[in-house]
Design brief:
This protein has one domain (4-116): Cytidine Deaminase, domain 2 (3-Layer(aba) Sandwich), CATH 3.40.140.10. The chain is globular and about 35 Å long. By secondary structure, the chain is of the alpha+beta class. It has helices at 4-16, 56-61, 89-97, and strands spanning 24-31, 37-41, 69-76, 82-83, 102-108, 111-116. Strands 1, 2, 3, 4, 5 and 6 form a six-stranded mixed beta sheet that branches.
């Protein structure tokens, strides 16, 4: 299996492919239990009350299977550096509800953290 750093880098590349002007962008990649990779990124919310539904992790959760692993990267549009991407509580609940076993997220440049989810 590819390393966490490699997949986080791919999630970061996905994030910066977003076509909007936000300062920080977020991309997420999931590896389902059947070996299929799926991905998502944040999208701009037309209404602030819907913004959590547009988080990359919430959108990705609909594509996952129990036992999946998720990698989440937050990237500065200005210099491409990694930033804190720990899922918000609502997204973490969605990921756990989808049966995710492990969440890896960027913390800062070349630094990441892991949330091990109990089954």
């Amino acid at each position: 299996m590819a390393s966490d750093k490699k997949i986080l880098s791919e999630a970061a590349s996905l994030a910066v492919s977003t076509k909007d002007n936000r300062t920080f962008l977020l991309g997420a990649i999931g590896l389902r239990a059947d070996g299929v990779f799926v991905s998502s990124r944040n999208i701009a919310a037309p209404d602030a009350t819907l913004s959590r539904l547009n988080h990359a992790e919430a959108r990705l959760s609909r594509k996952l299977t129990p036992g999946s692993t998720v990698w989440v990267a937050r990237v500065s549009r200005l210099d491409g550096s990694w930033a804190m991407a720990k899922p918000c509580k609502a997204c973490e609940v969605r990921l756990r509800g989808a049966g995710v076993s492990r969440i890896v997220y960027t913390i800062g440049p070349s630094e990441w953290g892991v949330i091990a989810c109990e089954s």
